[in-house]
Amino acid sequence: xxxxxxxxxxxxxxxxxxxxxxxxxxxxxxxxxxxxxxxxxxxxxxxxxxxxxxxxxxxxxxxxxxxxxxxxxxxxxxxxxxxxxxxxxxxxxxxxxxxxxxxxxxxxxxxxxxxxxxxxxxxxxxxxxxxxxxxxxxxxx
Length: 141
Prior knowledge:
It is a single chain. This protein is mainly alpha-helical. 56% of the residues lie in helices and 4% in strands. It has helices at residues 5-14, 25-31, 41-55, 73-99, 108-115, 120-123, 133-140, and strands spanning 61-63, 66-68. It has a two-stranded antiparallel sheet with strand order 1-2. Strand 1 (61-63) and strand 2 form a beta hairpin. The chain starts with a helix and ends with a helix.
């Protein structure tokens, strides 16, 4: 597999940064004189480039602070574990979305009642709304 010139440039920048001093996608873009004309487009472009590089076997790590190149296998393993946890959470969300097909035409209140989900604004104050499924279920007992 070949890399593009842009991928090579991004890789050369990221490999200079470690876990303790990562570089953000915006900073990489600035070093390459990539202008963000549409807010958020640079971030998406950088994620796409990094994804392509990872697919080609380059061990690029990331956190909320930015991208970095691991200095050893243990550091890469820590990132892989974190990345896998995020994937698992996304899979749970995807499963929920898939299972929500039957709820498309229902009101939020009906979905809450059917699934026993309380409204968070009432739970935060330590009480429930009268129509809260939690309260309704307790009254039935």
